Amino acid sequence: MKSLISLLEAIAEWSGRAVAWLTLGMVLVTFLVVLLRYAFDLGWIAMQESVTYMHAVVFMLGAAYTLKHDGHVRVDIFYRAFSPRTRAWVDLFGVLVLLLPTCGFIIWIGWDYVASSWSVSEGSREAGGLPGVFLLKGLILLMPALLLLQGIASVLRDLMATRT
Length: 164
Prior knowledge:
Elements: H1 2-40, H2 45-61, H3 63-68, H4 84-119, H5 133-162
């Protein structure tokens, strides 16, 4: 079971570390957009849209990494005083009752929306915009899939912790 947990958590770790580099890209491209606009009176819609795309990728694909590292917001007034076993029960409840159903719902409700975008290879509505809107919309399904994998790893880890 520990090897399965390690495999599932490695996926979240890899995806989070990979997309973290896009934050540097966002800073550099934003700097370039501002420099070109104000210093040279130049600008391209695609360059501006690329910042939005990178931000979406970081947010959507970094969610599982953040979950793995306990980085999501939570009210821990009582939680921090709990024993490790009680914390595991609280976490287990949260994943089973909140995270997994929410991820399933996002996949279920987003499937047709994403599929229709992919079926026409949807592009930007702006002239000169990026052509890959369908790729961006695909993140709507990829994010909950990664969260589901990390959620399963959390359930397995919490079940092990509740048995001690």
